[in-house]
Structures are given as C-alpha cells and as structure tokens.
Amino acid sequence: MIHSTHRFHGRSALRFVYQKGVVVRGEVPIALRYARNPRARSWRAAVVVSRKVSKAAVVRNRIRRRIFEIVRQHAAAYTPQYDLVFSVYDAALATMDYETLERIIVGQLQKAGILAAPTPPGGNHGIVNKEGDA
Question: Which of 2, 25, 80, 92 has its CA 20 to 30 A from that of 115?
C-alpha cells in the first residue's frame, strides 16, 4: 500500500484531475488520467473501480491493491508533482498475471512521460554502429 502522503483525500481532490487532466488509454480496459499539480510536494495516486466492474467489493479491492502495489514499486522513478488517477473498466484485472498488469501500468506511465523509459538490457552507451544510429 502506498503512504497516505501519496493518496488523495476526499472526492473533491480528484476534481482537479478530472477537469484538467490528460487521458492515456491502453489495450486493456484501464485508463490513466494525469495532471501536473504545482502546489503538491509529491505525486499522488488513486485507483477508481466502479461497481459496474464487479458487484463484489472483494474483487474491486483486489484490483485496487494490485495497481497500488505496482505504483508503489516504481515510485522512485516518478517525476514529482503529478496527480494520477487509474480508472478500471474490466474485472479481468483481478485475475490477470502480475507481469502483464505491471507491463500495462508501466507502459501507460511511460507514455504519459511520468516514468522514464527503461534503458534496454546491455544498453548501447552512446556507441554509434555502422548504420549511424546511436
């Protein structure tokens, strides 16, 4: 679970992100809405799972906990002062394997520019090959 300083407190805190935020959608029914918040000292995150996704609170909470854990694990690489809201639209995320879910969440954070793209294994370290690519 993420620390309380990285959580939203109250529904009115989410209003700013819903009004001013930019949406990043992936191939799975999950959307990331984010907005830069210059007044914040750090990033904040929320996961919204509607009752339309699943009537069972156990399933909704499981999805929420899984996404919060991925967000927490990659938090050291975030650009500060961003508000993040993940909206879930399918209960399949509760049973999806962890690696796939992590790849989706990290991909959306990279697409939004909040998380830096990882260097490829072995990296090219600025070496120019014969084709002229760096």
Answer: 92
